[in-house]
Design goal:
3 helices, alpha+beta, about 25% strand, OB fold (Dihydrolipoamide Acetyltransferase, E2P), about 140 residues, 2 domains
Length: about 140
């Protein structure tokens, strides 16, 4: 005969057998591990970006320089050159107006006369928008 105590014992035993193990500690540890990994990866990415950051104009022109087309307006007595219709070599639709160009010592000035269309190779570090001056690495006839 089944007594009330037998029923309670069976019910209590079944509850313990159906009970799943507590995994909350596993999930907390996994979450903290992923959070730590995310912080480490982010710091590595930021470290690499800060090494590569800087003046993009200077990086782009390390070997070649910035290239512009222009027309010689005047040759100044101090060795500088006034140019007009300054446009980027790869985008002639944009006109930057009149600029003063300081030629480097290696630039051959014999073929350059007023009205000549030239291609300017500019040192990006000397490109000054406020004063409209720039230093040319090279000046060639177009």
């Amino acid at each position: 005969m089944i007594t009330a105590i037998d029923c309670l014992e069976k019910t209590w035993l079944n509850k313990d057998m159906d009970k799943k193990p507590d995994r909350s500690l596993f999930f907390i540890g996994g979450s903290l591990g992923l959070l730590f990994l995310a912080v480490v990866v982010t710091s590595l990415i930021n470290k690499n970006q800060s090494v590569n950051s800087g003046d993009i104009r200077a990086k782009a022109s390390v070997d070649t320089g910035l290239r512009y087309e222009a027309t010689i307006s005047s040759l100044e007595g101090d060795g500088s050159i006034k140019v007009s219709s300054v446009t980027p070599y790869d985008n002639p639709e944009k006109n930057f107006g009149e600029w003063t160009v300081l030629p480097a010592g290696t630039v051959n000035m014999t073929d350059i006369t007023v009205g000549t269309k030239v291609i300017l190779t500019i040192d990006a570090k000397t490109f000054d928008v406020k004063t409209h001056t720039m230093q040319a690495k090279a000046i060639t006839k177009k």
